[in-house]
Amino acid sequence: MRLRPAAAATVVLAVALWFVPEFADGFPIFYLLFAYNVFFWIAQASSWNLFTGSSGYFSFGQGAYYGVGVYTVGVLVAKRGWPLLPTFVVAGILGALLGLFIGLIVFRLRKLRGEIFALMTLAVAFVMGAVARVSSTIDGGQGIPLSGVELPQALGDFPAMIFRLGLIVATLAVLAAQVLHHSRLGWGLFAIRDDEAVAENLGVPTFRFKMMALGISAFLASLSGAVHSLQISYVTIEDVFNIRVPLLVILMSILGGTRHWMGPVVGALVVYTLNDRLNAAGLQDVSDLIVGGLLIFMIVAVKEGLYLRARQRPLRAAIGFAVGIGPPIVLGLTDSAITVMAYGLLGAVLLLMLPVTAPVEEAVPVHG
Amino acid sequence: MADLYFDDVTKRFGGVQALAGVSGQVEQGEIVGLVGPNGSGKSTLINLLSGYLEAEGGKITFGGEDITDRPAHRIIEMGIARTYQIPRPFGTMTALENVSLPLMFGTARHDPGRARSEAQQWLEFTGLERHADTPVAGLNLHQLKYLELARALATRPRLLFLDEVLSGLNPTEITQSIEMVRRIHADGITIVIVEHLVRVVTELATRIVVLDRGRVIAEGEPTTVMRDPEVVVAYLGTRGRHA
Residue A201 is nearest to which of B72, B92, B112, comparing CB atoms? Predict the structure, then answer.
């Protein structure tokens, strides 16, 4: 298999980012933590999109896979003293098994498709939460303190370590999405999304392909959840098995665009940045309002998502970003680079949302 | 030796018996015309024989192998392909991508790059090469029907089911399409064609099978079968008006 330019660029970027903490002395550590969270959401959104974006089966199950990851560390590391790094792999496998279990039930019952899949995945997250609450081996309703987890020293101090772990998982998820995009598996899934019966009749092993994609997606989501557990000091069922994670990954993927692997990456960056800045300014409610509004607008007006729209209109994106960062710089709000970036992203997003005259879909080689 | 045998196949949709035990065979090199009034079960029969739907009863064999319960994605490997009455292209793909898809599966199993280059030849065969990079939304009905053909042919079938390839086309397009079917047949592909235009079927087919209300009511040489009184009644009603 030859290395594609996008994959090569991803690896080079990841390696470069790996060394950022080395040079981060005197650099506020919240930049590293902010970057980690962007990585986390990139991994989550990419993992969701890897299955749903390709196959068209809408999943609300992201919270369940994420939760399995968090709780695997909670139970095996915090309670039983397992070593952390091998537990990450175990978490990924447990998540994949859960995904495969759901797939086995839903995809084997032939008449249950589409909507039923969405409902099933939603139900599973609640069932997982209920199981964790009842079972004292897992949680028992008490929650689990994670602050005592022994951290690996090889990756640097906490901010550097979590930055690097997040980077690894995000890179894995993005590479997986890229490979899928150009593989027989990916094409088979695109065909399933367009017309599953015709795909099957043309030779696509639809059941096996859906299971494979769901397994990979759930593995990555759970692995990412396991890493994220290190950022949580006290894990509770309510914080983990809720609707927030699935809703955010759906939002990010649709905002960025589900038809290209860069879509969830762009969506995660934009949504997390805006969310973070608005929360920092104490505008939690406004944040939900803005993000929700953006989603509605995207679904109606920019179906292909921000990434493909930006590729179509790079000048607009650049101008929007430049105009966006103008006011905070002029007004002297430059205490945080993240704030400036948030304004830039918002400017770019708003300008990209203006109607375009040419039919965008025809000119963009989505699968190219 | 007959290529495709089907024996007493049945299918029911809810309370409707779409096929009430249909038997027959298709031999290598034939062009079988499958005719009958609306709702007689023609499309259902094609759906069962091509593996698109599962038969409830009966047995289907192809080249001596029992394919009754074989999953649809493995039927194509046997050399059976079909087109759809209403074209069903993959809507987010271009014409070329549509044709390259089956080349990644079945017996070919090419990687996406090789599949694309091989798909090109099938677009050329059907005269769609200028539209290779056109998203399917930009194709007209005639082109979509040819795309169906190209996609089916790319699987290199031995037996091809054509479900109303001519419906909705204008006279010039019909003439072109008949020519296309003849070329496909000349390449050694056995054809089963469902068609409403009786004139076309009698002209093309080497044998005709007439279905009515889920049963075979007549079969044989085209001109003889179409004069069969029972067929005339099924088609035109008891008054026997001329079509």
Answer: B72
